[in-house]
Structures are given as structure tokens and as C-alpha cells.
Amino acid sequence: MPKDLVIVGAGGFGRETADIVEAINAAAAQPVWRLLGLVDDALSADNEERLVRRGLRHLGSADELISGDQRPHYVVGIGSPAARRRVAGRLDAAGFPAATLVHPQATLGSEVTIGDGSVVCAGVRVTTNVQLGRHVHLNPNATIGHDTTLEDFVSMNPASSVSGDCVIETGSLVGVGAVVLNRLRLGAGAVVGGSACVVKNVASGTVVKGVPAK
Ligand SMILES: CC(C)(COP(=O)(O)OP(=O)(O)OC[C@H]1O[C@@H](n2cnc3c(N)ncnc32)[C@H](O)[C@@H]1OP(=O)(O)O)[C@@H](O)C(=O)NCCC(=O)NCCS
After folding, report:
1. Is 110 in the same domain as 179?
2. Predicted local confidence at residue 51, as pLDDT
3. Which one of 57, 60, 91, 163 has the fewest CB atoms closer than 10 angstroms to its CB?
4. Predicted pLDDT at 146
5. How far is ligand 1, taken at its centre, from the CA of residue 106, in Å?
6. What is the structure's pLDDT at 117?
7. Domain region containing 162
8. What is the pLDDT of residue 113?
């Protein structure tokens, strides 16, 4: 029996997440999820049209979801760690269980743990002894090296790489194509710009960019 699921956020990552749900269902003997639709408080006309083209339903706002009787599983398909944390906090408090979605074309190595609400896209490589917290987003082709921890609400944007023995603290974002060298720590809420190469620890709440990242 498939479990009911809603995706919060109908922007780019929310609709990519809908693709992941379809891929998971297609790869399984029986469908795992029944996608009820997407929740979005401020659906743009473009995104509304994109949902219609794909036959996906807009379920209204998060307030409407919370005030309803149903308590389907949810994932937050919003790239911003801070926005994701706010939405997940509300849905957790209202009794919605968080789903974990891993695209069948991602690989997770040995001794990998993954928290509720996390979304792993196609092409992701997670090697060995990696801890992924809750509501972590691993975008397409992100790689996470051995013995690394990604805390809750971390976003790894497409093709970004974290090397071995790193700690990426809660709410950090690693931009598209950026690299974090081994044995480094990003403080909570740090942002690494696209294509950057991080060569030393980054303080909490700091934005760094460039090669080497500063
Ligand atoms: C680094 C980043 C967070 C900075 O954002 P911002 O503070 O809004 O920066 P701005 O766009 O105002 O640019 C400020 C300056 O930094 C430069 N800059 C911006 N991003 C840069 C990057 N990734 N690398 C190098 N320089 C960058 C700009 O050219 C500008 O330079 P200038 O002052 O000489 O004109 C952002 O540009 C970034 O790279 N975000 C990640 C994007 C990403 O991963 N997208 C994929 C989504 S799935």
C-alpha cells in the first residue's frame, strides 16, 4: 500500500523532488508513495503551468494543509536551509511525519545514516561512514566523502563535493560546483559560493567564495 506524500514548495527543487518520487515508484515492485500534490504558499504563474503540464496538483498553502484532517508524509522541496527549517518545524509540530527520498540512481555506501526529511537526487555519491541529518538536500551529482557529517538542514547544491572527515554544521549551504577539502568544518549557517574551493574552516554564518574561498 503506497504511503501518501506531499511536497512543500513547487519551485525547481520541489518539482525535481516529484521526479524522484516517480523514479522511486518506477524502480520498486509496488509504488512506495502516492504523491497527493505540492503545497506552495505563493505559487507563481509559471510554476502553476509547470504543475498542470505534469499533471501534478497544487494543494494550496501550508496553512491549508495544516488546518486539514489528513496527515500525509511530507518533504520540503525548498532549497534555502532557513526556509526549509521554518516549514519543517511547523509541519513537525502539527504531527506530519517526514519522508526520506533517495533516487534509485544515487549510491549510498556502507555505514551511512540518513535523517528523516532528507532528499537525495540522481547521481549523488555518498561513500562510507557518513552521517546525514534531518532535511538534508543532496542535489544532483553531489559527492560526500568518507567519515563526514552533514548536520540537519544542510544543502549541497548540484555537483558540489565535500571531502573526507568534514563536518558541515546545521543549515549550511554549499553552492553549485563548490569543493570543501578534507578535514574541514563549516560553521552553522555558512554559505559557500558556487565554484568555490574551501581550504580552511569557515565560521558560522559566514559567506565565502572564490578559489581559495574567502
Ligand atoms: C556567493 C553567493 C552566496 C553570493 O551572493 P550575494 O551576496 O548575493 O552576491 P552578489 O551577487 O551580490 O555578488 C557580490 C560580488 O561577489 C561576486 N560573486 C558572486 N558569487 C560569486 C561566486 N560564486 N564566486 C565568485 N564571485 C562571486 C559577484 O560577481 C560580485 O562581485 P563584484 O562586487 O566584484 O561585482 C552567491 O553568488 C552564490 O554563489 N550562491 C550559490 C548559488 C548556487 O549554488 N546556485 C545553485 C542553486 S541549485
Report:
1. yes
2. 98
3. 57
4. 98
5. 28
6. 98
7. 100-207
8. 98
β 191-192/207-208 pair status: parallel
77 lines ligand 1 (CB under 6 A): no
Q: State the pLDDT at residue 108.
A: 98
Give residue 80's pLDDT. 98
The greatest distance separating any two alpha carbons of the chain, rounded to the nearest whole angstrom, comes to: 51
193 lines ligand 1 (CB under 6 A): yes
Asked if residue 114 is part of any domain, the answer here is: yes
In sequence order, what DSSP letters do the residues of 2-61 get, joined into one string? PEEEEEE--SHHHHHHHHHHHHHHHHSSS--EEEEEEE-TT--HHHHHHHHHHTPPB---
What is the pLDDT, as a whole number, of residue 73? Answer: 98
**Cell numbers for 163:** 571531502
Q: Count Cβ neighbours within 10 Å for each residue of 182-199 and write b for 16 or more, e otherwise.
A: eebbbbbbbbbbebbbbe
Instruction: Answer whether residue 212 is part of any domain.
Output: no
Best of 15, 155, 195, 209 to mutate for ligand 1, by most ligand atoms within 8 A of CB? 209
156 lines ligand 1 (CB under 6 A): no
175 pocket-lining for ligand 1 (C-beta < 6 Å):
yes
Cα–Cα distance between 64 and 68 in angstroms, integer?
A: 6
Distance 193 CA to ligand 1 centre (A): 6
Look at residue 49 in the predicted model and tell me its pLDDT. Answer: 98
- Residue numbers in the chain where pLDDT is lower than 70: none
DSSP string for residues in 122-159: TT-EE-SSEEE-TT-EE-TT-EE-TT-EE-TT-EE-TT
- Statement to judge: residues 132 and 158 lie in one domain: yes
